[in-house]
Amino acid sequence: MDYRDTPEEAEFRASLREWLAAAIPAGWDKIDDEEAAVRLRKEWHRTLYRAGYVGMSWPEEYGGRGLSPVYDAILNEECGNLNAPPLPSVGYIGRAVFTYATEEQKRRFLPPLLSGEASWCQGFSEPEAGSDLASLRTTARLDGDHYVVNGQKMWTSGGQYADWCLLLARTDPDAPKHKGISAFLVSMTEPGVTCRPIVIASGEAETSEVFWDDVRIPVDQRLGAPGEGWRIAMTTVTYERGPADIGFIANYRRTLRKVEAIAAERGLLDRPETRKALARAYVRGEVLRLNCMEQLSLRVSGRPPGPEGSVAKLLWADAEQSLQHLAMDLLGADEMTGVAADWLSSYFTSRPVSVYGGSAQIQKNIIARMLDMPR
Q1: Could you confirm whether 228 is annotated as catalytic?
Q2: Which of 114, 179, 241, 370 is positioned for an S-S bond with 175, CB 3.0–4.6 A?
Q3: Same domain, 50 and 135
Q4: Angle at the Cα of 118 (from 69 to 170), degrees rounded to 5?
Q5: CA 274 – CA 118 distance, rounded (Å)
Q6: How many whole angstroms separate alpha carbon 346 and alpha carbon 331?
Q7: 232 assigned to some structural domain
Q8: Domain check: are 129 and 79 in the same one?
Q9: Is 132 inside a domain boundary?
Q10: Could you report the per-residue pLDDT of 239-295, keeping only the tens digit for each?
Q11: Which position among 77, 206, 240, 320 bears the catalytic label?
């Protein structure tokens, strides 16, 4: 497979790079105030949308440009190369909506999702149903032309800033656990919705817990048929952003260069163990990059993402956590004394990467089933 850009892709990349150089907000990554950072990310979403860079691979009838997934990959890579603000998370929510929604729901929800007018979160995990999602306990009881929802969601990233939530709840308590779940499109401002930020080890409140107390949801905001929630959830997590979809490879390379600089500044490059550790970090990044390119090739050929995405997920977690651990080894006590506090925060942020979108154990189970291995 030739992974080089075609002439059209190279032209797009050059034009995009020029646009990004002028459009990226100066000092965006130095903002300490979380509210200000959220406002900046929302404005960045709208800026990208106005320039035509959001949802490029979506079908044209749903507001996209009908382009190859390669163009989304180029956007992710160039944004990572130039240290742009995070790209908006519209792909996996949008995929769930335009795959399962009614035409009326598509007209209502897709345009504001694409444009950044409305932001979304994902109400899947619960206190005792994280990776074992089918064990969720949040209920949705049909009451006339509404569902009444009660329960709790955990690790709802960005929930405190979201306008809407793609929510999973159990609508049939007597059905097998995978078959009694339905999906809903719910406003986060409905009476009975309480969202509490969770401050993680890095000191950031990037996730939240959400309580649902007698929340009434109109029947016409159920997504798909009753009991179709598990299928919708699997479609959503399959398209949920992986390492190729967040510019991780470019970010990883940039971080690796910084780690190499730390080793050089401290006179550690001549140590065999340091050189071996840096070489291993480079190899991890290359293995992940080639795996992502293979999956992108499958997408371009028309094959939707499948269970092989679990391989990339495991490689991503291993690469990120190993590199951050190497930085800690090189910095020694400095990361604890404030001299290199940013690195300590990055290290803490890397720890839950192996849990996002399903824990490493769940990913290994998926791979085992894909390989038809015995239970």
Answers
A1: no
A2: 179
A3: no
A4: 85
A5: 47
A6: 13
A7: no
A8: no
A9: yes
A10: 665 666 666 888 899 999 999 999 999 999 999 999 999 999 999 999 999 988 888
A11: 240
Please report the beta strands in 224-374, taking only residues with DSSP state E, as ranges in sequence order: none
Q: Which tokens belong to 173?
A: 């308590």
Which residue in this structure is represented by tokens 């749903």? 62
Handedness of CA 122, 123, 124, 126 (dihedral sign): positive
**364 shares a domain with 250:** yes
Tokens of 304: 């939707």
d(CA 342, CA 174): 50
The whole-angstrom separation of Cα 135 and Cα 149 is: 16
According to DSSP H, which parts of 122-169 are helical? none
Question: What is the C-alpha to C-alpha distance for residues 50 and 56, in angstroms, rounded to an integer?
Answer: 12
Q: How far apart are CA 330 and CA 238, in angstroms?
A: 36
Closest CA to 64 of 24, 20, 97: 97
| Tokens encoding 330 | 């090189």
Q: Containing domain of residue 191, as a range?
A: 120-227
Does 197 lie in the same domain as 271?
A: no
Convert the pLDDT of each residue in 85-141 to its tens digit. Answer: 988 888 788 889 988 999 999 999 999 999 999 999 999 999 987 678 888 999 999
Question: Are the C-beta atoms of 219 and 147 separated by less than 8 Å?
Answer: yes
Specify the 3-state DSSP secondary structure of 87.
coil
Is the CB of residue 347 less than 8 Å from the CB of residue 325?
yes
